[in-house]
Amino acid sequence: MFSTYPGQVVVDHPVKVPIEHRFDPYVDNGGTLLSIAGEDFCVVAADTRQSEGYSINSRYVPKSVKLSDKTVISMGGCYADCLTLTKKIQQSMEWYHHAHGKTMSTAAVAQMLSIMLYQKRFFPFYSWCILGGLDEEGKGAVYTYDPVGSYERESCRCAGSASSLIQPFLDNQINFKNQVSQKKTLSLDQVLRITKDSFTSATERDIYTGDYLELFVITSKGVEVQKMDLKKD
Amino acid sequence: MSIMEYNGGAVVAMVGKNCVAIACDKRLGVQAMTISTEFPKTFQATPKTYIGLPGLATDVQTLAEKFRFKVNMYKLKEEREIEPRTLAHLVSSTLYERRFGPWFVEPVVAGLDKENRPFICSTDLIGCINFAKDFVVSGTTSNQLYGMCESLWEPDLEPEDLFETISQSLMNAVDRDCLSGWGAQVTIITPDQVITRTLKSRQD
Questions:
Q1: Which of A32, A74, A138, B156 is the 20 to 30 Å CA partner of B132?
Q2: Which family does the record assign (chain B) (predicted)?
């Protein structure tokens, strides 16, 4: 009937064989985010497209959340995990406020987020977090995370599907790498222009980035939100 | 591990005002280990046309020699230099000949035609040509190069400005790719002259 190999058992009646049922718990909803720390301000920007494979779930699902007047968090990756993580952070910040009578500082939120992420080390939150805000001295602060909580304070960082496209541009324009010109501090206007240019470029070449750009500008006056159109194709 | 990422490399070409530029990194590695820092990936096809060949290094060398042969034969038979657009199609058919056992390179062609009009294009490893009007990128650093070129390029750059733009695009892109870098080579092709410059960059 059909050839056999050594060790193979052929029977002439139906046999029960174990079949593994699998379920992949992670979904990538795409999108790109970035954050730049200035002298006395911080910019947190993210596109608002949510995708699944080649489909678009929605053109406007914000990836950034204002946690306090001094802190904004932005998360990319699996939107479900990002939502739950945001909720956990907000609830913890409320507990902190009741216990200590003051809002959590940006550095404190940064440390707490790291702990929260590592607590799920063996079933991680599939979320790429960037925390932006003002530190206790009023200077801009950007904290970047990996999905299991390794974190670092940086001057600028982008994450998400177009991060490999934008990060070298930020190295060149914010940190003046490979340039002989003297390093100088950038104004809010310059940083906003660099941010908008980064996203328009990313939108051209990355299919998961586009629709709208939401910019959170954190200064000593508080948090201001700007919305900008991006290409919708 | 992808075979296209075994040796590493980056090539980019851009169009300027009556000129083109092509640039590549100089690293040759075997996965994480760097073997050589003197392995440029651009080759002259004619006095006004260059081919960039990033990808598997053995195929880079073989195809560079195959194209040198084919271009020389063309010149002997046609008694004229091959035009960049024709060379692009020659590259494409050479790659498609190996459709089911491809050469692991993704070439870039840049040059000026006989009327000194700029021409650039890139192909995938089986010969699909992408005729671009602005810039083309190829190699392990292509994502980073897309980001840099999309932000920095603008139309009608003069040769000096084009040189700065393509250099900054390449240098900052390869600094974010561990498999590319260790120096760069930039060639600017204008109707009067061809200048190749070597850039010193981060040596890591």
A1: A32
A2: Belongs to the peptidase T1B family.
- Residue B14 to residue B133: CA distance in whole angstroms: 9
Q: End-to-end CA distance of chain A: give it in Å, rounded.
A: 55
Given a contact cutoff of 8 angstroms between Cβ atoms, the answer to whether B116 and B26 are in contact is no
| pLDDT value, residue A99 | 98
pLDDT (0 to 100) of residue A123: 97
A46 and A27 in contact (C-beta within 8 Å)? no
| Interface size between A and B, measured as CB pairs under 8 A | 52
The 3-class secondary structure across A77-97, one letter per residue, is: ECHHHHHHHHHHHHHHHHHHH
Residue from A163, A164, A208, A231 whose CB has the most chain B CBs within 10 Å, to mutate: A164
**B176/A167 Cβ within 8 A:** yes
Shortest CB distance from B175 goes to which of A171, A179, A198?
A: A171
In sequence order, what are the beta bridge partners of B195? B188
CA distance A164 to chain B (A): 5
What type of residue sits at position A176?
F
Of A168, A201, A205, the CB nearest to B173: A168
Let me know the angle formed at the C-alpha of A119 by A129 and A36, rounded to the nearest 5 degrees: 15
- Residues with Cβ within 8 Å of B77's Cβ and at least 6 positions away in sequence, in order, are none
Element (H, E) at B63: helix B57-78
d(CA A165, CA A24): 28
Q: State pTM to two decimals.
A: 0.91
ipTM for the complex shown: 0.91
For A57-73, b where at least 16 C-beta lie within 10 A, e where not — what string?
eeeebebbbbbbebbbb
Distances (CA, A) of A221 to A67, A134, A142, A184: 15, 11, 18, 24
What Rg, from alpha-carbon coordinates, does chain A have?
22
